[in-house]
Queue: 2 jobs
Job 1
Amino acid sequence: MPADAQVPALVDPSLRPGAELVAAGRAMAQSWRLGSCPFLTENSVASEADWKRRATAEKRIMQHAHIGFRDVNRTIEAIRAVHGTCAERGVTVDRFGITLDWSMGYPDAMRANASRGTGIVLTGPEDFARITHAAPAAAHFGDFMLGLPGAIENTRAAIAAGATAVGNLGQYFTFRLPYWDDDVATTEATVTALGLIAAQEAEILVHSNLDDGFAGLFVDMACALGMVIVEKHIVEDLIGARLAHCYGHHFSDPLSRMAFHAALVRVNDTPGTMIFGNTVAYQSAPAGNYASLASYLTADILALGRWPAGHAINPVPVTENQRIPDVDEIIDAQTFAHRLTLHAPCYDPILDWTKVEAMAGVLVNGGRRFAEAVLSGLEERGVPSADPAALMLAIRRMGPKRMEALFGPGTESGRGRRPLIHAEWARELNEKAEHWVAAQPPLVVPRRLTVCIGTTDVHEHGKYLVEQALEGLGVAIADAGVAVDPEALVAHAIASGADAIAISTYNGVALSYARAVKAAMRKQGLALPVLIGGRLNEVPRDSNSGLPVDVTREIATLGCRPCADLDQMLAALTIDLPAA
Ligand code: B12
């Protein structure tokens, strides 16, 4: 949604009452009950939560592997290979995060014709069961399940297949599927699915990855902790299910990463799913990324040693910043992590935990104030506070920027609120932009330029950085928004009288999206430079590996200007300008 668009109403009269939706989900549990799978039978546990309590009692650090190739057969082979090879090496992979494709987020009937990203495409409950029966490890369905319009079908299939951790509430607040704007239907499907989970006899964990949610967008880390409290109130108090949190992508500094863990276990006693890898730190070649892997895993292993809360560690393969990882890379990362669980505890005696606990105290205090302000602030704005569906929709529509500005615990300053604990992602990108702008000669142009910018998917840090850099050069930004459809991006460029269009893309749709933008421009008779950056790759239609390939050359052939970085952006932007 463009930044200058009309702010949507927080309350929508067409939304059915939450109690009705939860009851509908509960009724569905009559016919949709937890099925069996090797993880439950071979380990004689009733649920993954039980397995987590057992491992915690044994002081064993559990391991999580994220996995998923477009083809389900290839994915099943990969799960078997990872679990089997690691077991031979004495490494236990406790759970697999199943990365469904974003087309799986639509209601069943729409999936066949939907654009595809890089994840797994499953057809029907049988495929879910084939995944859970691939190895005696817990299958975690945490992407494009809860939070998307296809939530009911997918949750039913996952439960029937024996899965006891289903996500991802965080994605409800931020993910938008191409050409899908019915957030009332998305909310109703999600709350009904949560009712179905709450009614199960077995303990099924509802998973929420905070970084998929607003944690990757708040400037104050205390607000991210506050979201834990708000989400827990909605899922546990108002719906009656158990909510397990995950965090990690954006937590690069060991001190705040460990402090966030300490704060989380003080406000949520439900076993955690996993601590996600610090993926944004992967900015080097594989050998360099091993240093980032070691840095965050050491912090997680030590924090879990001090505050065992059921989270598994998640060693992210060192090719993360290139593309989705392959099998050997996943096995190497798991082997690396297991070895590190033997080394890392040796650092405990020399660590000053008082620093970690002090920051945790600030996060808990600030988080509680934020959560109270959010819930009372929404009530003051007419949102029924006991209705989980209404609360969720209002939070989604308000968005992180308005929430932080209105309810943030930090003191007001001329430029928004002063964060109690500054989120690293924002500080890092601000510094990167300031540093780059300072190194550029002044932009000599006949009149002020306007660049219309938008993203193809939820990834908005690239856009954030490009906006900061362009504004630093005096260029005006026409913000077309996040996860914007090609036609809407072109319409916004026309409406704003832009001189160029800029696209930031990461989900493996770069070529088809660029094609669609050029087609929409032709239809409108618009001829503007199109700059495009991010991850310029896509899975070819006839691919047998299911791995995306680089499409930079094909994008250039379309007449767009691929940019690997800000320097290439400036060159591409000024190429048509008369020499200074
Ligand atoms: C942070 C992140 C996330 C965050 C995003 C938070 C947010 N709100 O922005 C979260 C956790 C939400 C996320 C979600 C997903 N992610 Co993600 N994510 C990343 C990660 C770690 C960093 C990307 C990033 O923002 N970098 C920061 C930017 C500033 O750095 P940069 O990319 O190097 O940018 C430079 C250039 O590219 C350029 N640039 C960038 N954009 C533009 C635009 C223009 C116009 C120009 C000129 C230049 C330019 O300028 C920058 C400076 O040089 C990458 C892996 C990695 N380390 O790169 C995976 C990654 C992009 N994600 C990936 C995937 C698959 C997903 C999910 C689909 C996973 C899932 N199944 O749910 C979802 C997306 C769902 C959706 N609805 O769209 C894959 C993409 C796979 C592929 N294409 O091959 C990656 C590569 C990880 C992987 N290896 O699997 N992700």
Note: The CA atoms of residues 450 and 476 lie 5 Å apart.
Job 2
Amino acid sequence: MYELAVFFHILGGFIWIGGLLFVQSFWHRIILSDSDDAARSLYDAINWSANRVIMPAALTVLVMGITMVSVSGAWAFSQIWVILALVLFAVSAFGFGTWTDKLFATALLRLEEERMSGAGYRAAAQKLIRVARVDGFVVKTILGLMVFKPSF
Ligand code: HEM
């Protein structure tokens, strides 16, 4: 049972971190695109996959992480690396996740209303890529906590 939790925890981590990097490359592709339709379909693809792949992977990481700490005598919620991992998880999933959703929703709404040119997509992608980069740093910091398990 424990090994299964570790397996899905790490698998979820791969998909989450890999997914964030993939999304960043898509933002770049939108910024470079000179076709409105291409930018629009990339935008929709990111939105679709973020909600159906990255978010479930992040939730799997959290549920399996809490399970591992709960069932194993080796870990405790009082350990600083576990506390930091949970705090940074909340910052990433609920902070950047919500922020990204808001930026998405606003940009999509504006795009719907004004049928904006590719410039609109590119401007929105510029903003979202900055969020994705900071979020990527936060998630990699959690990964560092996992491997080094610091006890200050
Ligand atoms: C971005 C989020 C996270 C990622 C990518 C991640 C990834 C990993 C990885 C790769 C390991 C294996 C490290 C090793 O064997 O040295 C690990 C171990 C572990 N993680 Fe996470 N983790 C994340 C968040 C969390 C959270 C929020 C918790 C706590 C609630 C947690 C609890 C644990 C525990 C207890 C282990 C030790 C498992 C063991 O070695 O038996 N993780 N994590």
Note: The chain has one domain: 2-146.
